[in-house]
User: What shape does this take?
Amino acid sequence: MAGEKNNPVSGQDVNQLAQVRRDKLAELQRSGKDPFAIVRYEQTHHSAEILSAFDALEGQTVSVAGRMMSKRVMGKASFIHIKDLQGQIQCYVTRDDLGEEAYAAFKKLDIGDIVGVSGFVFKTKMGEVTIHARELTLLSKSLLPLPEKFHGLSDTDLRYRQRYVDLIMNDDVRETFVKRSRILHEIRSFLDDRGFMEVETPMLVYNAGGAAARPFNTHYNALNADVKLRISLELYLKRLIIGGLEKVYEIGRVFRNEGIDTKHNPEFTMLELYQAYTDYNGMMELTESLFRHLAQSVCGSSVITYGDRQLDLGSPFRRLTMTDAIREETGIDFDAIGSDEEAKALAKERGIAFENRHKKGDIVNLFFDEYCEDKMIQPTFIMDHPIEISPLTKKKPSDPTKVERFELYINGWEMCNAYSELNDPIDQRERFKAQDALADAGDEEANHTDEDFLRAMEIGMPPTGGIGYGIDRLVMLLTDSASIRDVLFFPTLKPEQGSTAR
Assistant: This one.
């Protein structure tokens, strides 16, 4: 039977338990009481609404629906707990109220069955808000048992693979995803209030640009054309800026054919936004305000907890150039290093691996990754990156070897990447040529020349600030989650043996 192999019941014969449940279903169907024939049930309330408004609802008739999580039968009376979207509530079920036949049918129900209960609200002698059932309806039969109550679903791979069970058994998991939804709502509200327009751009593209990443390749049968899954939202959003939409954003899936670890999943959610007539300083202000807003609205405070750390999103974020950060940690001043050869010699001296094609700017980036990134615990804007690693960014007027770019680091994680966007089509073409050369040399993450994008830029692109945020990593931070898999409903996993399902 499908699903039996990985069912997380502890110490019980899943096949035998499942067969008992199927036999019960068959008996119901033979007697004309097929639960799957029921198409609708009218809920008047959810559990938390009843618990919080007991004084107003005491003695009133309510109808709730959900999954039966416990059942305690005591002869002619029983207690059950029903779990719905908001939580759990106790129900009191008696033979006198339901009738002998209906009560006998109720006693045959299994943990995990989905039921509807209608009755009046009262408090037990123990003070627990309870629904005194007048009617109980089986709405769906659970044919596989839930995990054993006290051990729960603890196998992490199984939790991710069977997220539906994880959500049933682990309230903290459900709360994480409720909070994720709220974070997305608050982001949209914040940007909408600032006059941004939400848009959608293609996922299947001929030229996957806008980031240094290896794309997934596929084939479009109708056009007999090879296409790629997007790795970024950038180039199409910039086309919209060129078209006169001054503030745009998109929240959408992007796909990068890369490894999987606690902070990376090949399929993930990005927020990218672009604003005409501003620069990376404007993006810093927006980012600091957005993160502070999210901390206050979602977590209730601008000081949040991640693990054993207190992270202060309320104080002004520190601003530090990449070369200054390296100088603080290593004593090396890359601003005083004049050649690629000197930079490579320093890398060799420090045991930092590099490739022959790398230039000084690439070495600077490698030094930052090695010595600085994990030290950036409190919110810090790392600014003014080397031009070699920033093909879509405006040069700094005061130093053409650097660009007007920043990354925000919190808890040692890169949280976003922002630019004063390059809007010179001639400069852009030259940088695309450099990326083409890298691709020809074997760099699978290099960008390629995008002629349509260049044509759009030649129409004229205003000065623009742009930024990209990894939503999943942001959710990890605000929900104190240890892994990106904890904030994705269905993270990428190896397929089960003998199965094509993800």
Q: What stands out?
A: Residues 14-152 form a domain with the OB fold (Dihydrolipoamide Acetyltransferase, E2P) fold (CATH 2.40.50.140).
